[in-house]
């Protein structure tokens, strides 16, 4: 049993949680107590308490010690031919930590802890295992197509293999191995009977044929099951230890502040927290050192930033010219960062650029118009009658001349 500490903004007795002490100056980074499952860590952040005005309870709860490592591999066929490309993913406690694309030919980590802790030898082993399993699964799908006797057409099917290991609450391990056909349960392996069980599905008759074929060739099933119970369960304990050790480290966020549109003499300021780990974080805007109320702020979701880290943001609208009174407070894993606003000048230029651009474009148009008019006037004077003259706003003393009237220009004065 693993002990976790969480903070809730309401009394927890109704949730069956054990109450500890009470604190009023604290922050609940996460209150995802609903649907508690597995190794879902909830971290405590001590800091600003702007969106909870009442006291919060300091709770100590216990979580079941169940953990799991499982792999899923998918192959497809089109019109009777099994496609060469296939995909696989590995999950630790339902969180992806590796991916495999046969076209790429190698495993890639997709979790920060895995990339940081697991070495090249681990990735080479995972690559070899998934490549071999993909090869065998393609053969199995080809056999299914043969048993199904489905010929012609552009039909397509998929076969997914899922295998892995679980550590139960009593610290015992249990392997599992299943097949899914077109996304529906297909077959499950039972080590007690060393045979396959057909799962209820639209392809139940086909599954029975495949079961008989697999049971007849029990050697391959026994070898794969030994791999699951031995190698995969051993990996689970090793990966879990690496994951727990890595979780004792943190990656601090980079804090950036951006200023956006000016509307009715107000500025929208956004505080970004980028590339942090673990996921739990708190952001709020401060005015003169005090948190703004939550109804004056808009917060974004915590999303993946890539490489296993996360990103999020919080924005607020403030009066233009008062930027220096505001700052962004970020709390993460016991560390606190204050980001100051320094975008007034850039924002002022950005807010006025439509007016500046319009003035520049207008000046250029007027300049070209004046040059064109001057050229037409000069041409008209040189060619004499028969040419239309152009009235310009510079010739205030001259009405529009008629085509059959001759005119000439001398030092800017119109003579008839």
Automatic annotation (TrEMBL):
Coiled coil location: none
GO cellular component, one term: external side of plasma membrane
Entries under SUPFAM superfamilies matching the protein: Immunoglobulin (SSF48726), MHC antigen-recognition domain (SSF54452)
Alphabetized UniProt keyword annotations: Cell membrane, Disulfide bond, Glycoprotein, GPI-anchor, Lipoprotein, Membrane, Signal, Transmembrane, Transmembrane helix
Family per record: Belongs to the MHC class I family.
Biological processes, Gene Ontology terms: immune response
Protein name as it appears in the record: Ig-like domain-containing protein
Residue ranges crossing the lipid bilayer per the database entry: 353-372
Membrane topology value: Lipid-anchor; GPI-anchor; Single-pass type I membrane protein
Domain of life: Eukaryota
InterPro entries: Ig-like_dom (IPR007110), Ig-like_dom_sf (IPR036179), Ig-like_fold (IPR013783), Ig/MHC_CS (IPR003006), Ig_C1-set (IPR003597), MHC_class-I_related (IPR050208), MHC_I-like_Ag-recog (IPR011161), MHC_I-like_Ag-recog_sf (IPR037055)
Entry annotated with the keyword Glycoprotein: yes
Domain Ig-like as annotated: residue spans: 253-342
Protein's cellular compartments: Cell membrane; Membrane
Organism field: Ictidomys tridecemlineatus
